[in-house]
Write a structure and sequence with these properties.
Layout (H helix, E strand, L loop, with lengths): L1 H10 L2 H9 L3 H8 L3 H7 L2 H11 L14 H26 L4 E3 H14 L3 H7 L7 H14 L4 H10 L6 E8 L3 E2 L2 E2 L3 E8 H4 L5 H9 L5 E8 L8 E5 L3
Antiparallel strand pairs: 1-6, 2-5, 2-6, 3-4, 5-7
Helix pairs in contact: 3-4, 5-6, 6-7, 7-9
Length: 243
């Protein structure tokens, strides 16, 4: 068997082998590198890891010397750094949402933290679009991708679908100051919506996403996001509260 593997490797042109390795994702590339000495050397080549690094962090190469070497080490260092940053945000959101809901101020702070940490789209996909994470963290990642990274909605939708979280739901509730009419202020209005992550990337959830992005400003004086009730059948309802 070992002899057969050696024969295959000798028969495989180096450029073809390099193209095969270059088409793989990181985990698959590392697995292939463990197959033999030949693949270990090829899968550790600078050209492959340079491409992987620049693809995941497009803005990184502008701050590096053109003759930079050791791209695998750079990739691994960046991965550990971004994993640590994401863990901070995960811990913050989970702490704020111990009761099952999070205030919009804390929600927006989590997004601002992601922005200051400069997480890439691939980082968000890897660390925040996990099915087992609290859906509020999925939502934070979605919001960050749309408004901070300015990713097209269909790109984000594809990643959510690939992670099987596109149907995860949250409950968004916001309170609006009552309007003035003929010198009198009407009662404050409370809007309550059950919305999926998919809805937020389509016209169906456009208003809710706008409320989350603006937060408690102008006529909206409070916004609360919580884990949705899967038994809820109505998508949106509006009720009147005491002014």
């Amino acid at each position: 068997m070992k002899q057969s593997k050696r024969n295959i490797q000798r028969a495989l042109p180096l450029d073809i082998a390099l193209k095969i390795a270059s088409s793989l994702q990181v985990l698959d590339l590392c697995s292939l590198g463990g197959c033999s000495r030949f693949w270990r050397g090829l899968c550790g080549s600078d050209s492959i890891w340079e491409s992987l690094t620049k693809k995941r962090w497009p803005s990184l190469h502008s701050s590096l010397d053109p003759n930079t070497k050791g791209w695998k080490e750079i990739y691994l260092r960046m991965h550990r750094e971004k994993a640590g940053c994401a863990a901070e945000v995960v811990g913050f959101v989970e702490q704020c949402a111990l009761s099952g809901s999070i205030d919009v101020g804390d929600y927006q702070k989590a997004i601002e933290d992601l922005s200051s940490m400069q997480l890439s789209f691939e980082d968000v996909h890897m660390f925040l679009f996990k099915p087992k994470l609290n859906v509020l963290l999925n939502l934070v990642g979605l919001h960050y991708c749309i408004f901070c990274l300015e990713m097209p909605a269909d790109h984000v939708m594809d990643r959510l679908a690939g992670c099987n979280i596109v149907e995860h739901k949250v409950h968004v509730k916001w309170w609006k100051l009552g309007r003035w009419c003929h010198g009198f202020r009407m009662r404050d209005e409370c809007c309550s919506c059950w919305v999926s992550l998919e809805d937020l990337l389509t016209g169906k959830g456009e208003e809710v996403l706008g409320v989350l992005h603006r937060g408690a400003v102008h006529e909206v004086f409070r916004v609360e996001i919580s884990i949705s009730n899967p038994k809820s059948t109505s998508w949106c309802q509006s009720t009147q509260g005491q002014g």
